Amino acid sequence: MQYKIHRFKSPTSTQDKVKEFLKKGFSNIVVIADTQTRGRGRFGRKWHSGKGGLWMSILLKPANIKNIQYLTFAAAISVVKSIKKICKFDANIKWPNDVHYKDKKLCGILTENVFGKENYVIAGIGLNVNQSEFSKDIKDIASSIKIITNKKTNINKLSKIIIDEFFNIYNHQYNKNRLNNIMKEWKKYCDTIGKEVSVITKNEIIKGKAIGADEDCNLMLKSKGKSIKIVEGDLRVKY
């Protein structure tokens, strides 16, 4: 499956920009920006997206929209594999949508659905690549490939490999309903499983041991002898 890349200097966000292509009926479009003026993460939070990072969104029109949560996992796998290939270090996946290195966040993924006459999915990827420092409010929790490797990375080369990895999973696993393969690979890179965690949900804080993910990509916890399903929340992991 072919895709087309469109580059922009400074849109509000790549998610917003890709929706302009969606309105024209396009799909398999990748939007990449140098910076974003209003980047956002999960729960509408502000996403720091200055120069030196990789900010991109992939617009898809999947035939099967029943299991789109697997596309978040596919994006995370693509980022981890590409970092290993190009930057030669092992990053890990933290459920549900982060890639990190030694508990410092490198990448966040935001998957959005647009349902209507036709159904679309947008997989947004924000990856810290060549930043040397971060603002005071995130410097203790964020890192970049440059900080880890002490080297500058070619963003165009890295983005191409991530996109190719992603479309490889999308075409050969997701579209062929081989979701088990995606889950198996995700578990290989996810270091949340087996750890003691606390999850801040809308109503409470739940503590327990992460024991796996179910077929809907929810996190399964063992807490006070019971199995609990976590659909969404902020995860704190004890490494």
Task: Describe it.
This protein has 239 residues and is an alpha+beta fold. The chain folds into two domains: 4-189, Bira Bifunctional Protein, Domain 2 (BirA Bifunctional Protein, domain 2, 2-Layer Sandwich); 196-237, SH3 type barrels, CATH 2.30.30.100. The chain is built from five helices and twelve strands. The protein has helices at residues 14-23, 69-87, 145-149, 155-174, 179-189; strands at 4-8, 29-33, 53-60, 92-94, 98-101, 104-114, 120-128, 196-200, 205-213, 219-223, 226-230, 234-237. It has a seven-stranded mixed sheet with strand order 1-2-3-7-6-5-4, with helices on both faces. Helix 2 (69-87) crosses helix 4 and helix 2 (69-87) crosses helix 5. The longest helix has 20 residues, at 155-174. It is globular, with a radius of gyration of 17 Å.
